[in-house]
């Protein structure tokens, strides 16, 4: 059933396309009706011209509908697919709005039927409707510069208007005419007009269109654009940027560039980068996307420059040849390195496949041997540029660097390895803040990181490179630590101490910075190189040397040393634990903690966290060592419960061990007793069978009870005495044997493995046989002890 058809002329139905632009679907008549196949109320729009159905949209209960300006209804059919209806009058809009609200159960007084999760995209629709009017730029005349400036500034707030303006500027010579007016204003010294031109050119750049940038940055226009941007109204006097670009900025060709297009592209990129960095103001948070196309323009230019240089057959070869040439002077070498550094920076913009091809070419040309030469030079600028180039290579492919280092080690005879040169540069950094050393330390960490090491069926890069590093390099790396702490270890009592000279060395800020870098990398190695660094720590007593750093006055160095020990303990490796206990290496930590006094600082927190970790993880060997050695010293510290908690853990473990010993004593006693009785029974049974075969009178064994057995033997002995039967010669030994055996049983069975059988007749052969069969009794350990 139709809910009423409102035949009103209107401008049309609008649909938001994939490019986020509104398309006008044409005018028509709108109604709201029930549509059977959609099983619900729908909005229907029929064309004015051919009466065909333009729109059939079901009114969904969860779809947000919004009424704007009394004549507009907007909603979304799907993601990025908006719809809009524009009415001729408010009455017709209100009637359709009532139908929508009725379906959704909303009050028609609302302007939106559901909560929106994001800003409505339909705000652009008004701009589309307005652009149906005539959109014309003011004529490019000197008298209308202010009008042009206001027009362009107003357009920037509207994406639709920006698109229309960009199309007009692109298809006409409007920009070139503006730049002609710039020369006129300069000749007339029309400051006001120049200020308007500054706003106009900046506005055109903010339109963010590649086609317009191509015009502005063309060889014939770019210097005029720079000239317009000199006249910022915020400045009292214009800046002389054109003078700087044409006279001060010099283009140096370290190797002659014969390709004219390449030269022009380099000039253009430099000038555009200058405009971006110097002339244009930093965009606000609302304008941060206005210059995205300019950034892309610079990016693509750099890609093109690198590609053209890479395709140039002899260009890179000539650069490397001059860098390797020993006769090349330092000034020339510096220029070559600056060029190549910039070239590597540009190469970061390449796609992965082209970057792979480029660095493969650089490797074949011998870039790493060249870097080894220049990094060993005295000139600080040359070394700095070489370090930056080395950084690009390490970031691109650490495996390539590791492979070169190991191949060099196999071929080198003098042991002058590239990686040791890098370590030497790090140790000899003259910067008080060690900026270069920090940089090189980061590169070394990247090379030592197992996570970026490759493993193939033919080789394992991790084991090969780490084995190489710990045999050929680590001693150079930790040499400053050994030098600083060499006199602090007393070989006699093997304790940590310090003398005045070394304390002064530890208190030197630059040396402390260097030692902290070394210890930080060693901490990284403890975490990632468990096997290799463990052997080195144990063989060189490395932790003892690191803990000497606790005597420094610099807290950052003390904390580095504590982190190193904490990382070792965190591995819960009993080899490390035994090493720490045997060397009494908690003593310097406790001394540093007590020396800190009542100050609540990072040192205090770090030490408490170390002991708290041991308590929480219940590392038994360390808990026992700490409590037995240091609890009396630390028991007075009550503002944390860490040390009392360690004592509780210690006592709980002692109780547990005591209970285990008691249980073990009981279990072992029962097992040994049962085994001894079983042996006795088996032997008596064997003797019983043997005597039965010979027709002897046998006295059967009684219960498996030593007391019954003893009573039986005593009864037998009494009967023999009553009968006064003298035993044959030699039987006394058997009786003695019997008596001693059962006396032992009566005294607590101290010799449970002894014989308890009795020979009733004197049979020397049997007695000898018994001696051969029986094994000597063993003594049982005293479990009660």
TrEMBL record:
<dbReference type="InterPro" id="IPR006887">
    <property type="entry name" value="P4R3-like_central_dom"/>
</dbReference>
<feature type="domain" description="PP4R3 EVH1-like">
    <location>
        <begin position="9"/>
        <end position="104"/>
    </location>
</feature>
<dbReference type="InterPro" id="IPR011993">
    <property type="entry name" value="PH-like_dom_sf"/>
</dbReference>
<feature type="domain" description="Serine/threonine-protein phosphatase 4 regulatory subunit 3-like central">
    <location>
        <begin position="147"/>
        <end position="652"/>
    </location>
</feature>
<feature type="compositionally biased region" description="Low complexity">
    <location>
        <begin position="730"/>
        <end position="751"/>
    </location>
</feature>
<dbReference type="InterPro" id="IPR016024">
    <property type="entry name" value="ARM-type_fold"/>
</dbReference>
<dbReference type="Pfam" id="PF04802">
    <property type="entry name" value="PP4R3"/>
</dbReference>
<feature type="compositionally biased region" description="Basic and acidic residues">
    <location>
        <begin position="764"/>
        <end position="777"/>
    </location>
</feature>
<feature type="compositionally biased region" description="Basic and acidic residues">
    <location>
        <begin position="716"/>
        <end position="729"/>
    </location>
</feature>
<dbReference type="GO" id="GO:0030289">
    <property type="term" value="C:protein phosphatase 4 complex"/>
</dbReference>
<comment type="similarity">
    <text>Belongs to the SMEK family.</text>
</comment>
<feature type="region of interest" description="Disordered">
    <location>
        <begin position="716"/>
        <end position="785"/>
    </location>
</feature>
<protein>
    <submittedName>
        <fullName>Protein phosphatase 4 regulatory subunit 3C</fullName>
    </submittedName>
</protein>
<dbReference type="Pfam" id="PF22972">
    <property type="entry name" value="EVH1_PP4R3"/>
</dbReference>
<dbReference type="GO" id="GO:0006974">
    <property type="term" value="P:DNA damage response"/>
</dbReference>
<dbReference type="InterPro" id="IPR051137">
    <property type="entry name" value="PP4R3-like"/>
</dbReference>
<dbReference type="GO" id="GO:0005654">
    <property type="term" value="C:nucleoplasm"/>
</dbReference>
<dbReference type="InterPro" id="IPR055236">
    <property type="entry name" value="EVH1_PP4R3"/>
</dbReference>
<dbReference type="GO" id="GO:0072542">
    <property type="term" value="F:protein phosphatase activator activity"/>
</dbReference>
